[in-house]
Amino acid sequence: MSKQHEIAVIGGDGVGPEVTEAALAVLEATGAPFNFTHYQAGDGTLEATGVALPQETLDGAMKSEAVLFGAAGACAAQVILRLRAELKAWANLRPSKAYQGVPCLRPETDMMIVRENSEGMYFGGEDEPEPGKATATRIITDHASYRIARCAFEFAIQAGYGKVTAVHKVNVLKKTDTVFLEACRRAAKEFPQVAYEEALVDSVAMRMVLKPEDFQVIVTTNLFGDILSDLAAGLIGGLGMCPSANLGDGPALFEPVHGTAPDIAGQGKANPTAAILCAAMLLRHLGYTDKADAVEAAVAACLAQGQTTGDLGGPLGTMGMAQAVIERLGE
Ligand code: ATP
Ligand code: MG
After folding, report:
1. Where are the transmembrane segments (predicted)?
2. Which of 11, 124, 327, 328 has a CB 3.0–4.6 Å from the CB of 139, allowing a cystine?
3. Distance of alpha carbon 301 from alpha carbon 231, whole angstroms
């Protein structure tokens, strides 16, 4: 018998458990040798136990090979930010790809945003030296910039993309973005088979809307990556479609970009596409390329033929769509 991979499953709050169950059903149907263990976290757990992220959940995630995460509610910062930090997940990969059959602004969109996840504006801290005056510190290191740039180039090669765009604001953030860009250029030299360009974040925001096909892999710092990946999600038809991966030195964590969607939670109608595409990313990460391709193709086929949930105009519920994806796995 082949090796069993230990996968920690954290459904969390709101629609999190529902879309995660759909993704699990698809993973099980692929026949990949996974052993799933369920763990608690989120607002519900906080209410029941007094902690949002119990030690048992953290330990379970740490000893797994990968984590499948749903969504966390008001306590998200205590759960997902902490998990990313504990798992040393310094890279956040957010694909945005338009699918036939899904109403969207820019059907040409097919890009991956590789966002630095360990520093930037999120970890430098803020201060309020006097009332009415506050400061924020942006930390950019060569070490973190170089490793995220390498990650972007490696991803480009693995996924067959031909270009990496480093996104910055060096005309204003002269010191920090010089460190970032110099590290990116060093990485670019190691991957001469991939084209490399640099672009200012403001111009990228406009070009992404006007001509998204200009972009393949984008590598950028934490805050710019956060903003641009939501912009990219908007181009392809919204949050219900977007998976993400958090990668680094520990187990990888996969989560839909959307949140708990409290307005539709508990009704079995959440769109499981993002969660199922997370499952495909997880398969790819653990080396099951053929199975990942099969899941993505099955999702694309369902979307193209309207076998979707109500938010996309389809007739199916969450598990109904999962079932439709499963039925197409062999095609
Ligand atoms: P949170 O604070 O957890 O992010 P939120 O209220 O911001 O919660 P989101 O999950 O970010 O909610 O969703 C924003 C909107 O998109 C909601 O109207 C929600 O119903 C819709 N939405 C999000 N995810 C899905 C999904 N998987 N299927 C269908 N609709 C969704
Ligand atoms: Mg939200």
Report:
1. none
2. 124
3. 25
SS3 assignment, position 46: helix
This prediction's pTM:
0.93
Interface TM-score (ipTM) > 0.90 = yes
Regarding whether 67 and 167 lie in a shared domain, the answer is no
Q: Is the CB of 240 under 6 A from ligand 1?
A: yes
Query: Is residue 97 situated within a structural domain?
Result: no
Are 325 and 253 found together in one domain? Answer: yes
- 49 Rama class: left (phi>0) / alpha (psi -120 to 50) / beta: alpha
pLDDT-based confidence at residue 202 (cuts at 50, 70, 90): very high
> 219 lies in a domain?
yes
What is the four-CA torsion angle of 295, 299, 301, 305, rounded to 10 degrees? 160
pLDDT in tens, 83-130: 999 999 999 999 999 999 998 999 999 999 999 999 999 888 999 999
Substitution candidate for ligand 1 out of 239, 269, 319 with most atoms within 8 A of CB: 239
> Is residue 262 within 6 Å of ligand 1 at its C-beta?
yes
For 37, half-sphere exposure in the C-beta direction (CA atoms, 13 angstrom radius) is 17
What tokens does 114 get? 């590789």
311 CB near ligand 1 (under 6 Å): yes
Give the range of the structural domain holding residue 135, as residue numbers without chain letter: 105-236
Q: How many domains does the chain have?
A: 2
Ligand nearest to the CA of 262: 1
Q: What is the DSSP annotation of 68-97?
A: EEEE--TTHIIIIIHHHHHTT--EEEEEEE
Q: What is the CATH number of the domain that holds 255?
A: 3.40.718.10
